[in-house]
Structures are given as C-alpha cells and as structure tokens.
Input
Amino acid sequence: MKTFAERLKYAMDHSSMSQTVLAEKSGASKAAISQYLAGRNIPNWERIKVLANVTGVTADFLMGYEETATADEVFIPVKKISTKAAARCMGKSEQFVRAGLQRGVLPFGNAVRGTGTRWNYYINPMRFKEYVGNAVFNEFFGVTP
Output
C-alpha cells in the first residue's frame, strides 16, 4: 500500500466501515471521502488524525510513515461483531451494548440513526478486543494467538 487512498481503504475495510459511516463519524462530507478514496485529494493533518481515530489506525500509517496500521497490530480474523455477540462476550445484555453505543459511552463502536426508529450499530473488532481484554476476546471468538 503506497498511497493515502489505498491506506484509507485498508483502514475502512479493516474496521468494516462504509464511506457513509466514515463521513458521519469524521465530520467530512461523503464527497470528500470519495475524493480521498479516488486519490484525487488528501486531507489536512487534522482531518487525517480524525480519520485515523475513527477507523482505528494510526495517522502515521495513513500517511505512509509506518508499515503497520496500529502500534501493536495483530491480525484479528473477526471482521464483524454483532451487538448480540458483544453482549454475550461481555456478560451484559444486548440492550446495554446498544444503549452504550447510541450514547457514545462505549469506546469500541458507534451507533448511527437509520430510518425511522432504527439504529445501525458498528463495533470495531480491534477496539473491542482492547476493551474486553485479549484472553476474553480470544476465548469467546476462538482466536488462537
């Protein structure tokens, strides 16, 4: 991965994030995200830091200064975590996880208002692993270190 666009796409894929969600979470417009991914534009340093934080990678990785996406990058074969799976892993109710994501108090994901009264939930596997701990995460999801 040599370009900012390739690295941003990798970060989005790694965190299972769409352009729309990235735009909402980062405060950038959908058009700006599209420009970044097409390689037509590179954001300023402040926006890069926000994009990195939202996708769970380092700003240095997005700029090509680092080869690994995170300081302690470990391959996590889990791409998507449902609110139900997260709740079971934590020993909490699904409503606890949903409410925490909606209110922004759980640091491993977010909730975006959908149509009507529905919500769309996103849980970043790397941040969730940090939150519950390596041992709990690996045992629950059957990941061998």
